[in-house]
Please model this.
Amino acid sequence: MSHGRLPAQQGLYQPRHEHDNCGVGFVADIKGRKKHEIVTQGLGILCRLAHRGAVGADPRAGDGAGILTQIPDEFFRAVLPFELPAPGEYAVAQLFLPRDEKARALCERTIEEQVRADGHAVLGWRDVPVDNRDLGESVLPSEPVSRQLFVGRADSCTDQDHFERRLYIVRKRAENAMAECGHDRTSCYFASFSSRTVNYKGMLMGEQVTSYYPDLHDERYVSALALVHQRFSTNTFPTWDLAQPFRMICHNGEINTLRGNVNWMAARRHTMKSKILGEDLDDIWPLIPEGQSDSACFDNALELLVMGGYSLAHAMMILIPEAWSGNRLMDEERRAFYEYHAALMEPWDGPAAVAFTDGRQIGATLDRNGLRPARYLVTRDGLVVMASEMGVLEIPEEQIVRKWRLQPGKMLLLDLEQGRIIDDAELKCDLARSHPYQEWLDRTQILLDELPADVAPMAPAEDVLLDAQQAFGYTQEDIKFLLTPMVLTGQEAIGSMGADNPPSVLSNRPKHLSSYFKQKFAQVTNPPIDPIREELVMSLVSLIGPRPNLLGLDEAGTHWRLEVAQPVLTNADLERIRHIEDSSGGAFRTRTLQMVYPAAEGAAGMGPALERLCSEAEQAVLDDYNILILSDRKSNADFIAIPALLATSAVHHHLIRKGLRTSSGLVVETGAALEVHHFATLAGYGAEAINPYLAFDTIENLLPTLPEEIGFEEAQARYIKALGKGLMKVMSKMGISTYQSYCGAQIFDAIGLAKEFVDRHFAGTDTVVEGVGLKEVAEEAVRWHHQAYGNDLVYRNQLDVGGDYAWRLRGEEHVWTPETVARLQHAVRSNSWENYEEFARHINEQNERLLTLRGLLEFDWAEQPVPLEEVEPASEIVKRFATGAMSFGSISYEAHSTLARAMNAIGGKSNTGEGGEEAERFNPLPDGSPNPERSAIKQVASGRFGVTTEYLVNADDIQIKMAQG
Model:
């Protein structure tokens, strides 16, 4: 049994997408004075944060809430029937156990065995008193048995920190042992296991925590701190184990880079070593079990760093660094600290307010953008209250000595042993000066721009260039609509939204593999970033090469690193990397691996070639090559290129599975990268840098045809600038600020690829709609190769027309063709129903032409129709009709007002979209009747264009747009 276990994957639901938006808070006595009042105040904060939680259809079923405190030693001594050692000499495991007696007995026996095997004493068990009378009916079936295990410290533990580390190892061993017995990891769950803290939580509402756990009422239950959390699972299912606080944190926000973070942590398994944890490090894997929420994964990562020897604040600064790359006001020592640690760990990026504690210190930090609220106050008698908002406790104003908010990237830290608040500046200054980080960087960091220049390959002849362009699927449209504007303006061309061409899986033409991957974007509780106005927090810096041992504190300052300012490499840049061994004194060794295979093998040869490539990459890393260049430059009439995205992701995931990914960097030299989305997908699946050599060759060939005279160096720089802007736009759509976080984060959905194919080569990517596999992908590559090197006269002297952006003869299919447009115009101008029916018939033929996913569906007609008298009248149905939100500026007055008139005529509702509405459309007509052009739904978007008080009061519904893709 698991406690409110997440449903299995079904339809569009993925259990691994568990995110939440919540209320967090803590209250603590700066001097470390333990009082029951602190616990009571913590529970009071929970109740005041009720509006930040959620309930379902069952009004007594909450999404989750809890409180973490210091161990109440006096209370436990009073209620336990056995003796306890001195405080700090024993630990408490707070457990959720199965209701089934046999399963529970097995869990308890397994835990006891692991405790004793590590030399600790099992002091005894305690049933945690609970009162479930107030729980909702939907919660009761999943309610676990709550028990506490008391463990005496082994003599081998030298101090309490050592004891905490041993408890961590024991817990991980016990979790793995129970998993081996077939138990779901959530069926026997450690809410906490510490000699300092204990955690009372559950699938509760904030107000229910107090009544459910009577322990918390006892006056003898004292603590100097209380960390609380009220969960709102925005797009997820609540469960007992996913309630917060977790063992060290509570989190309000979303980790947008989660898949990449989890992948990179898993990739470190075989290269991570720890002098502190020793051989026991092998017992903690999987470090981050599958099926957890993003907050739980973050807690696992923080726990590892702290147990591995980092201080609590140091670990938090590694996981959630403030913006440093573009911040010229940051002092050099702090900048060096962050720059050094950037190679250790990619940021866990996304909007976040995280409160954290280890029982001795308690604090909170915000993400670099400050996209979650966190306010705090300090009282005269030494109380600190932090929460998602002010007013969570009733404290007289005259008692407050400071009231402020956490700012982006800043940290609030209380050290209860020192009895003081450590200011953000002091805290970070001390850490920045604790080691000579700048000296280490000067000694071990190589900047690509500072390496000796190397000779780049010459551009090919025009006929050879055409063959290469055709082999990689270039079209006339790509050059006209994508490449040329980037070269002329230094940014992507602006185009209108909407596409009437078929998804790649339904197209009859070979398609770039990246077109099967659709970018995800931030929505609802997760705001996107404006990469232009918030340029300070954005960074395209990429570190190429092996990653240092995350827990190698004794190895600090010895790891070499190669830094590039942005991930798009010129041909000369790539040659610098290819020959870096000489200029780095042997610190870096580069191996070029070919992403091509003999054309004679046809489509069937791609699978074995991919296997060979992965094996070659593995062997190269074992042979101490720490930069791998995946290249398709040798593609020609005799060799077919493996799609660069497929090869990159396959190698990336193969090395992760072998535990070797962090031992080497991945650079991609490809002719397949032209537009921003191509680069975004390569980055998302592990490429630390990309050299689009064919795009550069095409630019050089294009220069004589441009309307202005531009040198190649300038044209190349503009193209790279446009790609950088585009990548930042893509990253910011998902609320991600740094390329390091985006690299390997896999922020895509696969549309039209077979699940088996995706699971093998793009592991962790969601397959929303299945489709083609390796065989079909290989066949498309072969078709392009035949276009380039075959005997088709159409392609002898010119590129394929394309036809993705506009209908073209011999181009891509479109729903809107010259014929359908003409038929619509004819129907409108003649006001003829027959002509309209002819237009509609032609449009609906897309079902037979298979241009849309809905065209694959057919109605399953009932044998007997529903009696008409049982059907709601059409006049009532249309009252629920509403137009999509289309702003005045995006269409026209005529279209905007006509939509409003139509909806008002049938009793439906039109939506203004963002941009407002003319005030005269609010006014009634002279006869007093409502204005037929007044839109019932008024939209308020992030820009608040056209939003006035008059606009808002003239709304029947107000729609607030949080984000758009």
Notes: The mean pLDDT is 91. The CA atoms of residues 567 and 689 lie 4 Å apart. The chain has four domains: 15-435, 462-494+504-548+560-795, 818-856, 873-960.
